Fold each of these.
Amino acid sequence: MPIALHFVAVVYTTTKTDTMSLIDRIFERTYPGLMKAMDLTHRRNEAITSNIANAETPGYRAVDLNFAGELDRAFGEQKSTLKLSNAKHLDTSSNGAAHLVPDYSGATKPDGNNVDIDIQMGQMAINSGGYSRAAAMLRKKLAILKLAIREGGR
């Protein structure tokens, strides 16, 4: 299940000078971007796991998630909405549903299945690394915030 962190609601205004909370200035687009990246790597992992589970299913076509496209789509939707009341509100119109696409690469077996376990395991390793890197970056960002709060009180 994806990790979800929630912060105090933030409202963007469209006056001459946009007001930004301290959280906005610290996190800008980094926090929502990292959270979306973690969510998408989790969803891609589910697709890869499904591919592996169906490796022997006749006629099954491997599916994949277009990570870059989904991330662009999420931020495009975020830009189109000027009010953001919560950092979790990235998936406005799609209810967070990522678009899985059939993967036609690779050879198709005589039974119509195109899942190659070795390729899927490699993709899973790469995907897991992406999740780990995003989580590490988020931890560092939160550590900076924690330090600022702690040092600001002195």
Amino acid sequence: MKGVLCDMRKGGIDGDLLMLSIVIDSFVRAGHMSRALNVLLSCLCHRSHVAAANSLLNSVKGKVCFDVGTYNVVAGGWSKIGKVGEVERIMREMEADGAAPNCRTFGFLMESLGRVGRMDEAVEVFCGMREKNCQPDTAAYNAMIFNFVSVGNFEECMKYYNRMLSDNCEPDLDTFDRIITAFLRVRKVADALQMFDEMLKRGVVPSIGTITTFIKRLCSYGPPYAALVIYMKARKSGCVISMEAYKILLMRLSEVGKCGTLLSIWEEMQECGYSSDLEVYEYIISGLCNVGQLENAVLVMEEALGKRFCPRRLVYSKLSNRLLATKKTEMAYKLFRKIKNARSLENARNYWRGNGKGFQTKCANSSGDRVFASPLARKLAEEKNVTSSQVSAPSKAKGATDAALDYINIPVSQIRKVTASRLLLSKQTIRHYYLTVDACVDKLMR
């Protein structure tokens, strides 16, 4: 179970209530009551319900054996909101209970002091750890690095980072994440890339969410060259790139007109198993238009329409205007006809799905004949004299659609004018077990 949870954490997958209950129940069944309590306290503190976590801790005191981790969870919750007094109280309770504070506990104390601006006291606590026979570890150094990063003192931040290395403390993902994020926040891109290289050299593999955060921040200002460096190095190191990160890169590359890189990233995205959606197609079409590759843009537009993605009017207008400006009137007209048909289909489908709950009715009796729920369906059955035995299984949907269209008997040209969606959604049940939306809409729009 712990291995699965670690894989979820590396993959950036968040758990739900069911998973939480399974984890707690597993610990309870195994007799690890303290661990089950720690999981529940962690969830409360993670959502800033520290007071509730503290009340729960006091209510079960004496019933469940507390360890250092139990106290650290609540102390970490208080440190996130800068409650120094509460963290010190938790430490006193630990000592009274016979549990000695560890480096993580001192780290929470230093972090809470840094949040309220008491940096000198945080330094004193750090220097006094050795006097209490507690050698600073990665968690303690991370607390000091976070304190100096929060006030923008990068010189002291790197000083403690180098001290960490000299004390043979290996920096973890949290260390690099905080330093790189701080560099990117003040637009020190070169320093951020240098720290990213060092992170990969030390074998620290960033998670999906970490890579996405770096790329998103780098793409928020200027051309995405640094974001591409992060992307290529992360992909080369075997890191998983999220769909959101791919979309951000495609959007920025489309805006700056880097068509070759845009298509390469799109191809790599598909190789990773991600399927293109409407946003991706819009970025590709817009990028191809920006560099004048109108024929390729039309091909991508047709591919999107073939997958029933109808791009926005802004994207279509951009492509259409470029085609007309380059005297490609025939190509623009053909594209116009395809877009018009695709939008009619999309509007009809959306209207059907939004209002057609009564259409899809399962009707069958023991004798094999159909039972129809609406007057239109019954009349269709009487006029066509169709039963379930006369219609083969593969052609039921098609037969139902043809029968409905024959009964309605309205020309297709008039259907387009009157709007196919209103005709389809007459609040009647068409003869079929489960008549699909697309079958009837496609038949009407031909």
Amino acid sequence: GRRRRGGPGGGATTAQAGLNAQFARVDAKGTLLWSKDFGQAGADEVALAVAAGASGAPLAVGWRKAGAATDAWALRLTSAGGYVWDTALSTGGGEARAVHLGDDGTAAVAGWQVVGSKPVGRLWSLTAEGKPAGSGAQLALAGAVRFEAFAPSGSGWLVVGTVGDGSAARATWWRLDGGGKVVWQRQAKVASAAHALLPAAGDRWLVAGMSDPSGGNTDAWLGAIDGLGNVQWARELDGGAADRALAVAWTSDGGLAVTGLQVVGAIQRALLARTDLFGHASCAAAGSCLGKPMAACADGKACTADDCHPTAGCQALPVDAFACDPQDGCSLDGQCQSGACKPGTVGRLYQKTHALGAGLAFGAVATDEAGATWIAGYDTAGPAPHKWRVFPLDAAGNLGPGTVVATGKQFNNNPYPVEVAAAVPRGGGGLVIGGSSTDSTVLMARVVGTNANGTPAWELKEFFSNPTDARLHDLVPNSDGTVTALCNFKTGFGLMRAKASGQIVWKTEVAGNEAYELRLQRAAFVPSGALIGGGTARATQVGPEEFAAVRIDASGKVVWSRFVGLPFRPGAAFATPSTVDFWGTLATAAGSRPARVRVSHDGALVGVFRYGDPQATTEVIAAVQRPDGTWLLGGRRWQGQSPSAWLGGMNGSGDLAWQRT
């Protein structure tokens, strides 16, 4: 922010009247840890945005005014608030409005600068030392262009801002490619401005700002756009005065918090609005439904993820609407686009059971790069040693000849049962499967050729063979062909990255103790190459388990760990350009239910989204993202005393569209 200068302060303050950029760090309880302000004699400095990277050292951006005009400005601090460097980003006029930091300390900054006599939108790239890294991006249009906020989107950026001034100003959003070129541009139709941007599920974005359709008092404005910039919905949060939204964030229960300002006469007030997932600030006016997806409302009004109660006319779609042959032209939400749904017709679907000798359990399924589907399983009965087995699977659910994965004398001779936990495609073709034996050995295997009978030949390796109760929970493939294994010990966890040959690139072990436990269940790679994992932690062996997230850089170093007071166990992880979504199970007083926890790349809790019937007990064990951006969840649900296999489908808005047992 800013501080009126006129007396002594921290940093490079002076007694000369003016403005200093001010910074404060508080802990999780709001206790002030330190406050510093920075400025130079004869100049004004104001910080408008700040970001902290993996090291915890903040980078602030804003503007400095040393003469007649303000210029875009950046300032690097230490994690304790000490000065490192500052630099001007423009000359002749400009402001920096938003910043994103990379793991290596590099930064991208959005704002505007004056070229000629007109503002143009700017993206600046900076090295960790504050030097220019390339020419960045510049966008000039017929009207003034001011970039206000931005976020990574694929290999480029999604940017929001304003084009024009006064009554001609229009909220505008752009998608830029990695080189800064405009992929598309969309614009509001009335006088407006866009100030804030928030990623949402399914390549959707929330935009906040102000609108002034009547030329009178402005209204705080909140809207959602899809991946092509089309407006999905828009709301005006009319406070009865001149309102403007300046920021938006997820709340822990899946709603939205909007902050900004309101001007009444000559008095400026702070504005805070709490809305549901779709921008409704009032349950009565929203026609909201509890625990139902938006598509399930027969009255056409949006259903929410908050505590609003169902209204008359909100009914779930009939179950038979989803039992459609693909040739009937049924869409993912169960509405037939042509013809009629045929209840009970399942087309190419099947449900089968398979037995092998005394017992067989399927532990993982994966499709390789050639399109072949494989199931990995293990013996569940009979004398030891139990064996891993891998089977090809055809489209009708029939198993081909199974291959016993039993290379290695110690593996063949050990008397311990083994289990398969994961299978993933490997770069160049084939699979890597992973699991554990009960002697604290983590096992991984890969295809190395073909046997004489035409079945795949497997090579097996052992890792983490020690008395620490090692178990493999997940395998995460990386774009470079390596695979990272997530393992858990008695109280801590381990991570190992291996090449396709099985050669270890790095191995990290984080030990706990009898009074502290942290275990990882799922993880996903983010664009920087770092791995963000989610799991459970508890302070004592008898204490409650709570969700925890950990970031590991490309070399295997733990960058940070975050603990969230949620009784949540992740079952799957997916990365977005700025967040990681963990799907899993949330414990409640009434039972367990499906939930999604969203964490930013720097470990901040972005949102918690609850789904399904809160009165039923449902455990999410696995999830997969489909090509259209929706998710399919799998697990089990208790109906009475016995669990049943459970499937749930999410729509593009992130709502639970259907569930089956």
Amino acid sequence: MASTKIKIPIIDFCNLELKPDTPQCVESIVNTFWSDGNPNFCNEAKSFYKPLMELDAC
């Protein structure tokens, strides 16, 4: 039986900069974790962006 190798992406968490100061940053973060992107997750995360920034401004 042939073995199937799964490639798991290596992410350098020490140098990963997460600065959610723009909605476009969400796309950048999503593309870091999913090479083909993940539109569903990206749209869901963006839907939280505006309310989160409004809370941060208080």
